[in-house]
Write a structure and sequence with these properties.
Number of strands: 10
Helix content: 25-40%
Shape: globular
Structural class: alpha/beta
Strand content: 15-25%
CATH superfamily of the largest domain: Periplasmic binding protein-like II
Radius of gyration: 20 Å
CATH architecture of the largest domain: 3-Layer(aba) Sandwich
Number of domains: 2
Number of helices: 12
Largest sheet: 10 strands, mixed
Amino acid sequence: MLRVSASAFVLPAITSATAILLHGCKGRRSDDQLVIYTSVDEAVAREALAVLSAGSEFVCGVNARYDTEATKTTGLANLLRSERDAPRADVFWSSEQFHTAALAMDGVLAPLPQSLLEGWPTAWRDPAGRWIAMNARARVLCFDARKVSPTAVPQLWSDFVSAATVDGIAIADPRFGSTRGHFAAMRQVYERAQPGLFSRLIDSLHRHQARLLPGGNSAVVDAVLRGEVTYGFTDTDDAIVAMDAGKPLGIILPRHFKEGERGGGAMIIPSTVGIVEGSKRVHCAEECVRFLIAPESEVRSAQSALRTLPLGDGVRFGPAWGENDPLRFDLRAAVESADATAAQVHLALASTP
């Protein structure tokens, strides 16, 4: 179902669906309002939740709490932990899988009913059934198309280890968001394959004066477009927004290992959804999860500004990018090492001039 995209490309414009503002439902008591914490792009999440709330079969209203771009997911994950003894949220809808897996391991998420898990690909759900993954983005290398020929762009993330000169690299703060998860997964697979490779990669990024930016992946794209750096480590959604606007940006989906090494392709970052342990509105929470993983919802997300890749079986619509051999890594091990990895990368690169 995942399609190959190993070289640089320019995406055609696709008209996204009209945004719908979510106001909640009048006439429903506060205890009938399903509370959702989400780090999914606010405009896209608002539209989806408005469709859910408007459904005649959905008996609850919807209240959503969003996260900021710079600290994607981390703030809400910490809030869920702080509220563990008296949970306010019913559903956690995350833009990535690392914090979701960590919350499940900590007992913050409840097991989902079998009716939600049945038929969903096993590769894209928690083995213990506490969350489901869908609507994937991918980690990409973006570059200034005015300066760099697509044929000169590194095809492997590890190519930066041996690169002689690189005219500027921008990376989002590794303590947050998909950047945090990517480095954790990268450290795991590289150290397993070749001990010391990950540390050499970070040393090389420091040597090439890679810049850490506090504004998230969108700030990375902006730095490339302003000509401040040549390369940026970012995600498909932030890059595609710029490309759709006609900006001179190119992207590739670098592999982590060479072609032919199975499980060594681009890193796929699905959004995830689970029900908070102790939810007082379990029925509505289950209906919300059912709505979010429905084929219509995955298509809506694929057509949105995020251009996500559907992961559910039977969904044949998808964006122009794809990856038929996504990176395989041990999610649990990556979650357990994520903080230490983020600290290592931040310490090494925060001192870059």
